[in-house]
Amino acid sequence: xxxxxxxxxxxxxxxxxDLTAVYALENQIFSDPWPLRSFEEIFDEDSWQALIAExxxxxxxxxxxxDIAGEAHIANIAVSSEFRRKSVAKRLLDxxxxxxxxxxxxxxxxxxxxxxxxxxxxYKKAGFAELYRKPNYYTSPKEDALVMVLWLNxxxxxx
Length: 159
Ligand SMILES: CC(C)(COP(=O)(O)OP(=O)(O)OC[C@H]1O[C@@H](n2cnc3c(N)ncnc32)[C@H](O)[C@@H]1OP(=O)(O)O)[C@@H](O)C(=O)NCCC(=O)NCCS
Hints:
By secondary structure, the protein is an alpha+beta fold. The protein has one domain (4-151): 3-Layer(aba) Sandwich (Aminopeptidase), CATH 3.40.630. It is built from four helices and seven strands. The chain has a seven-stranded mixed sheet, with helices on both faces. Strand 6 and strand 7 (143-151) form a beta hairpin. The radius of gyration is 15 Å and the shape is globular. 27% of the residues are buried. Residues 29, 76-79, 84-90, 110, 112, 116, 118-119, 121-122, 125 line the site of coenzyme A.
């Protein structure tokens, strides 16, 4: 269901031409941003999928994930600060869920900083559960990662 809160916001697949703007937003939002080169290098990988959210032609959010052997791995979801709490990330995640279900992924998995309360609340609200910690996973600042998982109950046994 599309939220009224985000009715002027549209989603589409990311194209290579979006990468400069995506990197600018990544750099604004994260203390340990991915380098532009990393986005460019992974962009054509078969397992790589990426979406963007726009408002009036302006990039306001994005989500990138990998589909590897039945696991959808969320690399990042980010929303520009002035567009938060408008269900933009929820809509991006809903698209990832559809893709993961179509691809018969058994789970969606991700890492998150335990100090990142908005993200933790967001993922918990979406049904993700904490799985385990990866010690000293992050740098700038150094921090453990919390690995979270959402099991997908496809209910398609026997298809
Ligand atoms: C985490 C993030 C992606 C959430 O994006 P968003 O578009 O604001 O999230 P949504 O509006 O879709 O939120 C959906 C639900 O998640 C929960 N939630 C989201 N942000 C929250 C916050 N700051 N505090 C508490 N709950 C929150 C709420 O339950 C919310 O529903 P509600 O607004 O109806 O109460 C955004 O805060 C962000 O970009 N943070 C910086 C980047 C980041 O940390 N990404 C995740 C790294 S893995």
